[in-house]
Write a structure and sequence with these properties.
Order of helices and strands: EEHHEEHEEHHE
Shape: globular
CATH topology: Alpha-Beta Plaits
Oligomer: single chain
Helix content: 10-25%
Largest sheet: 7 strands, antiparallel
Distance between the termini: 31 Å
Number of strands: 7
Number of domains: 1
Radius of gyration: 17 Å
CATH class: Alpha Beta
Structural class: alpha+beta
CATH architecture: 2-Layer Sandwich
Number of helices: 5
Strand content: 25-35%
């Protein structure tokens, strides 16, 4: 049986997490997460190939929010991605999602929103915007802002740039030049 597709990014532009590795899989249902394929083999692989080279900082589960996103929830594996983390004031998640939904019609490029459901401070949302280059991210920096109605709810807003790690992908073929 083939392993799930696995994305690996290094954090390229960040003040706190530069050079960290983010490993993620996308598009799983709750039932699939509850019944992983061969957890013993996965753990054995981690012990042999990952633990000697890594320090774990966390394990999170996010839910894709199609009503406020442009895309399928599984990111296009482009060389770069804009990665935004948004922490909100307690109790403001629904108002934040409403503000994003009101802005959704202006999205014309892949923009994926996810809500944290397990593993950290809540409410927390992340936005992933796969792009072909750093220039594409910088050219769209005006689009990084959130609507004023959403920004009023934010307690912390962090924007980082990710670099896809082609040598660390599992069943994912990187996209180069479109």
């Amino acid at each position: 049986m083939r392993p799930d597709p696995g994305y690996s990014y290094s954090v390229w532009a960040s003040s706190e997490q530069q050079r960290w590795i983010i490993y993620a899989t996308f598009g799983h249902s709750a039932a699939e997460l509850a019944n992983p394929v061969s957890p013993a083999d996965d753990e054995r692989d981690n012990q042999l190939n990952v633990l000697p080279h890594a320090e774990f900082r966390g394990n999170w589960i996010y839910e894709f929010l199609p009503a406020v996103s442009e895309g399928t929830g599984v990111p296009t594996p482009t060389p770069r991605a804009d990665y935004t983390t948004v922490d909100l004031a307690p109790g403001s998640g629904k108002a934040f999602e409403t503000a994003l939904a009101n802005q959704r019609s202006r999205l014309d490029k892949e923009t994926l929103w996810y809500q944290l459901v397990v593993g950290g401070s809540m409410p927390r949302y992340i936005r992933l915007r796969p792009r072909d280059s750093l220039a594409a991210i910088l050219d769209e920096r005006a689009d990084l802002s959130l609507p004023d109605s959403a920004m009023r709810l934010v307690s912390k807003f962090t924007v980082e740039t990710l670099t896809l790690r082609p040598n660390m992908l599992v069943n994912v073929t990187p996209v180069t030049g479109r």
